[in-house]
Amino acid sequence: MKKSRKKNIRSGKQKRRLQRNRRILIGVLGVLCLFFIITKIKGVFFGNKYRELSDDEITAEKPEIDVDLLDLNEYSRPGTESERITGIVIHYTANPGSTAKQNRDYFNGLQETHITKASSHFIIGLDGEIIQCVPTWEIAYASNERNKDTVSIECCHPDESGEFTRETYQSMVQLTAWLCNKFELSENDVIRHYDVTGKICPKYFVENEDAWEEFKLNVKKALDSVE
After folding, report:
1. Is 136:83 a contact under the CB 8 Å cutoff?
2. What's the angle, vertex CA 147, arms to CA 144 and CA 151, rounded to 5?
3. pLDDT digit string, tens, across residues 141-176
4. pLDDT tens digits for 108-121?
5. Secondary-structure breakdown of the chain: helix, strand, coil percentages, each rounded to the nearest 5
6. Residue 195 reports pLDDT greater than 80
7. What does the alpha-carbon distance between residue 71 and residue 77 come to, in Å, rounded to a whole number?
């Protein structure tokens, strides 16, 4: 009788031990599954979320930028949040001789005129001045289906050829390199409006492929010089 009782006690302890081990195993598996699910959810919901490096993390020299944001309005600055930035798009104004300020004011005036929906994050003037019109964490109406994941740079030009002044060009290189650094991109992520839609924009870089390749090479040199 005593042996049978001891055997039953021992059997009960083993059973409880097995149950405890089973609960621990199930708990561990549950934690691992939860971690996997959270990781997947973050990938789906946060993988394309907007992000940028802070100014003190950026090594490329920041150009002087005049921040003159457009009013929030549905025609040029809708306030829609950008996704993760994966490209920088170069444009030209197609308005020979106009200044950066004039183009900025044109964009802002669309809330009254309703002519079209258009804007750009940055405009570079004939003397190399840079105006920021839209925060980079918001979309601008510039690059069609790439509005959501790109930053746009609109560039002034003195005549119908679309060729940029030396000052405009220098600011384009510096601003583009700084933005590439800001969003952890390379010169290969810099594109033309033409590469998105086939529109002849920026005209000089579309009609002169060598000039476009040289521009990207200059952006690369600017990036390499600060590494």
Report:
1. no
2. 125
3. 999 999 999 999 999 999 999 999 999 999 999 999
4. 999 999 999 999 99
5. 50, 15, 35
6. yes
7. 7
CA atoms of 78 and 192, how far apart (whole Å): 23
Rounded CA gap, 38 and 56, in Å? Answer: 31
Q: Which two tokens stand for residue 149?
A: 């994941």
Domain region containing 1: 1-47
Q: How far apart are CA 226 and CA 223, in angstroms?
A: 6
Give the total number of structural domains in the chain: 2
pLDDT computed for residue 45 by the predictor? 43
Instruction: Give the rounded percent of residues in the chain with a pLDDT score beyond 70.
Output: 79
CATH number at residue 142: 3.40.80.10
Block residue for tokens 């040029």: 76
Tokens of 137: 């964490």
SS3 category, 155: strand
Ramachandran region of residue 123, left (φ > 0), alpha (ψ -120 to 50) or beta? beta
Nearest CA to 195 among 138, 134, 152, 140?
A: 152
- Same domain for 189 and 99, yes or no, is yes
pTM of the model: 0.78
- Count CB atoms within 10 A of the CB of residue 58: 19
